[in-house]
Amino acid sequence: MYLPALQNTDPAIRDLIIAEEKREWDKMRLIPSENYASAAVMEATGSILTNKYSEGYAKKRYYEGQQFVDQVELLAIERAKEAFGMPHANVQPYSGSPANMAVYHAVLEHGDTIMGLALPHGGHLTHGWKVNFSGKTYNSVPYELDPETELLNYDKILEQAKEVKPKMIIAGYTAYPRTIDWQKFREICDEVGAYFHADTSHITGLILGGAHESPYPMADTGITTSHKTLRGPRGAMILCKEEHAEKIDKAIMPGLQGGPHNNTTAAIAVALKEASTPDFKAYAAQIVANAKALAGKLNSHGFRLVTGGTDNHLILFETQQSKGIGGREAAKALDKAGIVTNCNTVPFDPNPPFKPSGVRIGTPAVTSRGMKEAEMEKLGDWMARAIDNVENDAELSAIAAEVKELCKDFECPGINPKNW
Ligand code: DSN
Q1: Closest to 89 measured CA to CA, from 78, 100, 99, 98
Q2: Is 144 marked active-site?
Q3: Which of 297, 293, 288, 306 is closest to 383 using CA atoms?
Q4: Ligand 1 and 96: CB distance under 6 A
Q5: DSSP code of 143?
Q6: In the chain, what is the straight-line distance between the N-terminal and C-terminal CA atoms, in Å?
Q7: Alpha helices per DSSP H over 213-307
Q8: What CATH number matches the domain at 42-274, 2.50.20.20, 3.40.109.10, 3.40.640.10, 3.30.470.20?
Q9: In 10 A of CB 335, how many CB atoms?
Q10: Residue 145's pLDDT is what?
Q11: Beta 195-199 vs 221-225: how paired, if at all?
């Protein structure tokens, strides 16, 4: 019997977990922020470390009984410092949003001017979007992508920064398919006297695997979630220069959070260990190779790709003008066809975020299953077929059956179908 204690206590939840495991096994998961955590990461996440309260930091806790939890946290910190090459790491943030909040709280005053990429252009909510705390607490003056190329225009960002004199510039995105020139951001920040804050959440796995340049040690501060390309648990880390360390630690605890989630901290340590292996390097390179192959295939089917392609794990493609199908409609049809994506605005989208013109996809999860370029070719064909048949449920079900058949040959880390 699989999950026997749950079967005894709460069979409804057990059934839903197994149903989700089957969904994750049977479908091509292309949401670029999702992945498969390894069995080792899952064991740490599900461990008894969840039982312990540890407000404070190693050797300076408020409660007793920290003999082992201190070691877990110190190990995670050491691995984070070494992986990113930064002098200070805080591994306690519950996720990316509180991590960003803590950094702003530590180095900014309320009302200070910040510049992050506008949300509809691929920025994150917490990079100064108006409905978010970051846009309400700080004077957010977002930068945008170049209307011609849909790329970051570093000259324009510098021009804007000289005009608005931000205290912080934020780089790192959720829907930008190209590499980021961190050195350019360092130079812009130096020229206007701003802090350079990097949010590498989406691309941390690529950075640690050598498939994207690192913003460190150039950035003053940085955050990353731990569950995207990094493939760890749902959590986050903050990296920073020594001069910000004390303020950032205080901003997390007691400023924003109580006890850290020690089971997550342990799983972050495991993920960082996994990320230091040659296998992880190969995985990072394959993510990019797969994204390029899939992008090429979609392009050949007549989809307009934002920026014309990809250099990382992510592809943003336009469906409204390319095919006369809205992004949401396309994403729903793809889901019925066993291909899980999310609808997304494209830069300068004439349509609102709830009815955007594009679809965002990424290759981290399918790459974790061992899929390669040949599978991406098939995937691109299925996607085009599904979007050509958004109202044809029989055709979408037929594609889903083909997808499921292919998925049978590719194991999902952390899931064992023999358990069912
Ligand atoms: N929700 C994440 C993403 O999908 O990119 C960002 O926080």
Answers
A1: 78
A2: no
A3: 297
A4: yes
A5: B
A6: 9
A7: 242-250, 262-274, 278-300
A8: 3.40.640.10
A9: 16
A10: 98
A11: parallel
pLDDT-flagged residues of the chain (< 50): none
Instruction: Yes or no: say if 245 and 106 are a contact pair by the CB < 8 Å rule.
Output: no
Is 402 in the active site? Answer: no
C-beta of 100 in contact with ligand 1 (< 6 A): no
Q: What's the count of helices (H) and strands (E) in the chain, helices before strands? A: 17, 15
- Residue in 73, 150, 199, 249 annotated catalytic: 199
**The pTM is what?**
0.98
* Catalytic (active site) residue 14: no
| Residue in the structure block whose two tokens are 């992986």 | 83
Pick the residue whose CA is nearest to atom 6 on ligand 1. 174
Give the Å distance between the CA of 173 and the centre of ligand 1: 9
- In the chain, CATH 3.40.640.10 covers 42-274
DSSP 8-state symbol, 177: -
**Per CATH, which fold does 277-419 belong to?**
Aspartate Aminotransferase, domain 1 (3.90.1150)
Check: CB of residue 361 under 8 Å from CB of residue 294. yes
| Distance from Cα 125 to the centre of ligand 1, integer Å | 9
Q: From atom 4 of ligand 1, which residue's Cα is the shortest distance away? A: 33
Rounded distance between C-alpha atoms, residue 287 and residue 270, angstroms: 21
Query: Which pLDDT score, from 0 to 100, does residue 151 have?
Result: 98
Q: Is the dihedral of CA 353, 32, 28, 4 positive or negative?
A: negative
> Does the beta carbon of 33 sit less than 6 angstroms from any atom of ligand 1?
yes
The ranges of the chain annotated as CATH 3.90.1150.10 are 277-419
Kindly give the number of the ligand 1 atom that is closest to the alpha carbon of 96: 7
